[in-house]
Amino acid sequence: MKVLVCDDSIINCQIIGAYLAEMGHKAIYADNGTQAVTLFEEQEPDLVLIDVEMPEMDGYEATRMMRQSFNDFSQWTPIIFVSSHIDDASIVKGIEAGGDDYLTKPVSQAVLRAKIHAMRRLVNMRQNLIDFGNQLREVNDKLMMSNQLLSELSLKDPLTRLGNRRAFEESLVRASRSAIREEKAISLLMIDVDQFKSFNDTYGHQAGDCCLQQVAQVFKRGLHRATDFGARYGGEEFSIILPDTALSGALHVAQRLRQCVEALQIPNQKASNGIITISIGVATAEPSKEFSGELLVGAADSALYEAKQTGRNCIVGTKMEPLTPVSADKRPQYKMTRHLPTTTGSSSAH
What we know:
Elements: E1 2-6, H1 10-22, E2 26-30, H2 33-43, E3 47-51, H3 59-69, E4 79-83, H4 88-97, E5 101-104, H5 109-154, H6 165-182, E6 186-193, H7 196-203, H8 205-222, E7 229-234, E8 237-243, H9 247-263, E9 278-285, H10 293-310, E10 315-322, E11 334-342
Parallel strand pairs: 1-2, 1-3, 3-4, 4-5, 9-10
Antiparallel strand pairs: 6-8, 6-9, 7-8, 10-11
Helix pairs in contact: 2-3, 7-8, 8-9
């Protein structure tokens, strides 16, 4: 143990130093308060024995400065005042300055040994508390990481790594509210892999899973904005939310995705053109105050149905335009403007 002995009396330093050496401790010495503070900061002793009355700076002021230099609980060092005058007022003043105990001069070796033993016990208890606190922080950090991972997993489709149905519904609520607040358009793509059941029946479920993963990768690569959100809606059906996107931009995105899936050239012998394709229903709305994402899903789903009925591997777009005035039941009414199915067109980004 390294002990800082602060006393302007050489004899007192020698006596205390001899006691400490006999106990197996190393002493470093200061003969005034200023030197004591400097050595405390440079040497970082395990214990301080400091005289109350010293030149330049007394023990009380030196102790205050030592405590101010280390505010962290983990760096706490015991400080014991050494004085020939110990009364109630001196003890209170010493404790308020940052001291932990008192020794009476002349110092008794037995009492010094007992005081050091008591201070070491406190140091060990403090270290145990620090170690326990570190362990708690470690456990808490791991728990937070696990909770975050579980939260992320609960919103991910395990096969495609896109968002799942729950994530889609939560994202659609947020996007719809944002569209209402900012008075901007919002578009939704509902996508279905054409004749996927027959593909599964022909090539097996493992091939079907691989097919869905490849199609999902096209969607991931095809969404260029952080606000765009893709999800597996269920089975072979996918959905993509495009905030702040007009119908023309949404159709561009849909066309690009349709072409990219077609370019995968995944064989499907039951399909009319011999490969996996997708059909897409696009719905766009400029929300009224009563707007809800459910209306957008219904419109996009209706457009998707029409695309599949038209012959698959195509896109049908729907623009939802609110009627005015709002009906008496306070629910907004919309008229649908259909856009013809598209099998070719621009592949530019929105």
